[in-house]
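> forwarded from #structure-qc
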């Protein structure tokens, strides 16, 4: 009704993707502003924002399995690596020094990377039906070290430690999406592409969360025993959660290094998994918007720490000197996770909800 946007007279209106006029308007405004950014910002900032969009896709995937389904996973870097190497192999030159199948079309290697990672997630999923909490976290943590060992030894695929291999080619039917032409510079087109993919993946995740599957995820997260009693098939929905999360991680891994163009086995370390956990926890577990906010915050954090030397001269920018900005970044990840878990468990999304509720209730904000 006009003037009463929170009054819903049907389940369809209550569960709509944008169930108020304000949400529809603000989504359109944010999308328009984001699409106009390439005309306002420099190429180096656009490249960083493109990386933020890719990181947000991976964070949404982790948020589905951890925030929505309640299955703690510390092995996200493992699935990112599967996606990255699958995409690079499918797209790569068959006559090159590493494995390549010569299919550079992005419409081929991107879904293949996601599906291969999803298959790996399905193989891991049976562990989730037998383990939970800290035990599941430790098992998924082991995947990171297994993946690093395989990547270090399988040099014909990965290129070897310290050498690496080129990332997948951003090409669609022969057209270079990441090339400078009349439609824009490389970084402008790269940002538009990553932004469009983020919107697609975010809307798909939001639709999944409000479906029957998403409600089953929430029931398992809140109390899996009670969910099983009321008829939720725990094994089935935990498998779906890991498969969908791994698919998102595989696609994010495939896109992650197309920005820089190169990667090696050391790119998928435990720190990468910690960064994605930080994105979900700091942004707000159990929300798509929170995962996106957390991904942008954590990805932009190194850019801010690089400026510390101007304010704190004894912090070096050289990795072989102590203390340096890289150590500060690592410490900040841990400190921020602790601070948000103690003082604002709902993360950045929770801060936004508090501000929104205060504004709605003003001047009766007590």
């Amino acid at each position: 009704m006009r003037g009463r946007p929170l009054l819903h007279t049907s389940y369809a209106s209550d569960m709509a993707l944008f169930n108020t006029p304000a949400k529809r308007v603000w989504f359109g405004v944010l999308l328009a502003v984001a699409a106009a950014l390439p005309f306002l910002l420099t190429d180096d900032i656009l490249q960083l924002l493109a990386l933020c969009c890719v990181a947000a896709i991976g964070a949404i995937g982790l948020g589905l399995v951890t925030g929505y389904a309640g299955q703690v996973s510390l092995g996200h870097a493992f699935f990112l690596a599967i996606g990255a190497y699958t995409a690079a192999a499918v797209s790569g030159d068959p006559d090159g020094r590493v494995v390549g199948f010569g299919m550079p079309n992005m419409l081929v290697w991107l879904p293949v990377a996601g599906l291969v990672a999803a298959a790996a997630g399905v193989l891991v999923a049976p562990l989730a039906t037998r383990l939970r909490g800290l035990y599941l976290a430790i098992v998924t943590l082991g995947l990171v070290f297994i993946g690093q060992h395989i990547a270090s030894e399988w040099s014909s695929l990965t290129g070897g430690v310290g050498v690496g291999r080129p990332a997948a080619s951003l090409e669609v039917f022969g057209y270079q999406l990441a090339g400078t032409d009349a439609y824009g510079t490389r970084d402008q087109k790269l940002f538009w592409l990553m932004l469009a993919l983020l919107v697609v993946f975010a809307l798909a995740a939001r639709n999944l969360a409000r479906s029957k599957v998403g409600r089953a995820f929430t029931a398992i997260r809140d109390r899996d025993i009670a969910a099983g009693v009321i008829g939720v098939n725990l094994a089935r929905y935990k498998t779906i959660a890991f498969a969908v999360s791994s698919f998102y991680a595989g696609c994010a891994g495939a896109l992650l290094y197309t920005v820089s163009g190169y990667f090696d086995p050391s790119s998928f370390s435990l720190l990468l998994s910690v960064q994605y956990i930080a994105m979900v926890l700091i942004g707000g577990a159990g929300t798509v918007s929170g995962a996106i906010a957390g991904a942008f915050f954590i990805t932009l954090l190194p850019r801010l720490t690089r400026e510390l030397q101007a304010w704190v001269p004894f912090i070096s920018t050289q990795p072989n000197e102590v203390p340096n900005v890289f150590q500060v970044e690592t410490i900040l990840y841990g400190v921020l996770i602790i601070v948000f878990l103690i003082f604002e468990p709902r993360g950045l999304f929770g801060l936004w909800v508090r501000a929104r509720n205060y504004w709605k209730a003003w001047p009766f904000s007590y």
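QC bot note: The chain has a mean pLDDT of 87. The longest helix spans residues 43-68.
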